[in-house]
Design goal:
elongated; single chain; 170 residues; mainly alpha
Length: 170
Amino acid sequence: MNIERTASHLSITALTTLAGLHVAWGLGSSWPLPDRESFSDAVVGRPKAPGPQACYAVACALGSAALLVAGRPKHRPALSQLGTAGVAGVLALRGIAGLSGHTDLLSPGSTSTRFRRLDRLAYSPLCLALSASTAIAAIRRNNQMRSTEHAMRWRLCQGTSAPAPTTRRP
């Protein structure tokens, strides 16, 4: 398995897991913390946790991101490519905002001391790692699209339907 495929699988798995976690939080779970108050302080950064609708909206966004990284919709590869690049960009923005102490610009009210510490130690680095792996997946998909286009052009130039020669990039 090459690095691009591994990065793609890592991103898809992480985004899907995070989507599931947000669904659980929308249903009232405080996992991995013992109660909703400590959950709100550590994960959200404010005294009160968001309602189920907000959790489900984030879960839908993360699930959609996972689908884009997985190459969906298959019949619209350019949309998938653009969406994957967008996912990488949004994750990078979130990671940079968190590391610079400005998450509250993206999520107003996320200002508790405990949240900011965890944001700099865990949440933001996770976003940046996911951004990098998603960007690698986007580059892989772009290379696949170019390879397919090259093969189609080669067949047209040859006037045959024979498969095009494959070249491996180092």
